[in-house]
Amino acid sequence: MSELAMPHRAPLNAARLAEIYDEHPVPVVLELLWEIHRLRATILRAHQVLSSIGHPPVGVPQIVWQTFVQTIEAEPCLRDPLTPRQQRTLEQLRGAALRRASR
């Protein structure tokens, strides 16, 4: 089925994904969130490639390239601030790294 026949829902940002888990902290939701995390990481890598290339690769039609760029640039994961849970995890990781480095 084409995208025109069934449009996508609005993308969910990190804060909403955290809310969903808080509302339904069951293993299947956590499993789905890990898959979303993996897909968001793929989007971040695609954005890095876009930034380094800067122009359509040889042989890629302009419309395909423009659609790809617009799709990637519209992803909220490129602008999402860290959720409180992510911030705590990052601080814990930094603290552990500092403790290891000071040994």
Question: What's a quick, concise take on this entry?
Answer:
With 103 residues, the chain is mainly alpha-helical. Helices cover 65% and strands 0% of the residues.
Q: Would you identify the regions where 5 or more consecutive residues have pLDDT less than 50?
A: none
What is the N-to-C order of secondary-structure elements (H for helix, E for strand)?
HHHH
Report the major sheet.
Answer: none
Estimate the helix proportion, in percent.
Answer: 55-70%
Query: What is the C-alpha radius of gyration, as a whole number of Å?
Result: 18 Å
The total count of strands amounts to: 0
Strand content: under 5%
What is the CA-CA span between the terminal residues? 58 Å
Task: List the domain count as a whole number.
Answer: 1
Q: Mean pLDDT score, rounded?
A: 91
Q: Oligomeric form of this entry? A: single chain
Principal-axis shape equals: flat
Instruction: Give me the number of helical elements.
Output: 4
Strand pairing plus helix content: what structural class?
mainly alpha
